[in-house]
Amino acid sequence: MKILEMLLSLFLIILISCKDNSVENTQQEQNINISWNVKTTQNNHIIAIIKDTTEIYINNENISIGDMIGVFYSKNDSLICCGKIIWKNQNEALTVWSDDPTTTKKDGIFEGEEMKWLIYHNNKNYVVYPEYFEGGNKFISGGVSKLKKLTTK
Asked: Model-level pTM greater than 0.85?
């Protein structure tokens, strides 16, 4: 399991170096599956996205109404969404759901695990990187964060 998580982390580092930051360009080569299906569980972490103070860009351009913004966790050879919103150019509260401790399989993000961010824009998944006004990028049950910036590198 640790080896797979390390490989997935390496894959994300490789993605950073891709010119357009599109997961779609390397997804099949790396055998990484991406699921945007979210399972709600008992615990969550809320991330405030304030329209007038949060900068959200893909390759230095604003995202579009209808784009999906999601937080993901790693599971085997996949990135699984544990919270998402559809961008409406308004204030949002993105709810990130934890792993369900009553099940034997991983079905949410673990306490203290780093949140991985993607934006689905123009039929492509883009890896994006957060900065926060408050809180941080590790999942905390009952946590609240205020997003400052979400951009490709």
From this structure: no
**Amino acid, single-letter form, for residue 67:** D
Backbone angles phi, psi at 81, to 5 degrees: -75, 135
pLDDT tens-digit profile of 128-140?
A: 999 999 999 999 9
**Which residue, among 109, 93, 91, 124, has the nearest Cα to 43 in the 3D structure?**
109
Task: Report the share of the chain in percent with pLDDT over 70.
Answer: 80
Structural domain spans, the chain: 2-151
- Residue 102: count other Cβ atoms within 10 Å of its Cβ: 8
Q: Yes or no: say if 25 and 16 are a contact pair by the CB < 8 Å rule.
A: no
pLDDT at 32: 78
CA distances to 68, 95, 103 from 119, rounded to whole Å, are 6, 15, 29
> Residue 37: exposed, middle, or buried by beta-carbon count in 10 A (0-12, 13-18, 19+)?
exposed
